[in-house]
Amino acid sequence: MTQFTLSDLEALVADRAAASPETSYTAKLLSGGPARAAKKLGEEAVEAAIAAVQGDRAALVSESADVLYHLLVVLRGGGIALDEVLAELQRRTVQSGIAEKAARRPA
């Protein structure tokens, strides 16, 4: 198993975001505003979904890496730290998704 974490990727994105858009793809995405990075995230998510449906394991791994990278770029552009997302995920694990959704229904 790899030692590389999403926190490592977040730090790498932060470092590359500070570089020139002429030398950093991350900085170039961010310089295009939120829509540019969000569009790439959407494209990569669709490609990952297609790979999953096709049962293409290698493509799913590759596209999933792209999704995670582009998600962290979008979060960076929005000023949202990975820890905020992880805290939200932790909050949601208190009960099952089915129970949580049922609790939202009006009586």
For this entry, give a set of tags.
single chain; 107 residues; mainly alpha; Helix Hairpins; 6 helices
Average predicted local confidence, pLDDT: 94
Shape: globular
Which blocks of ≥5 consecutive residues have pLDDT under 50? none
> Strand percentage, roughly?
under 5%
CATH class label: Mainly Alpha
Query: How many helix segments?
Result: 6
What is the strand tally? Answer: 0
CATH superfamily: MazG-like
Radius of gyration: 17 Å
Distance between the termini: 47 Å
Which sequence of SSEs, written as H and E, runs from N to C? Answer: HHHHHH
Helix/strand layout:
Blueprint (H helix, E strand, L loop, with lengths): L5 H12 L7 H7 L1 H22 L2 H21 L4 H11 L4 H8 L3
Structure characterization notes:
The chain is mainly α. The chain has one domain: MazG-like (Helix Hairpins, Orthogonal Bundle). 76% of the residues lie in helices and 0% in strands. The protein contains 6 helices and no strands. The chain has helices spanning 6-17, 25-31, 33-54, 57-77, 82-92, 97-104. Helix 1 (6-17) crosses helix 4. It starts with 5 loop residues before the first helix and ends with a helix.
What is this entry, summarized?
The chain has 107 residues and is an all-alpha fold. 76% of the residues lie in helices and 0% in strands.
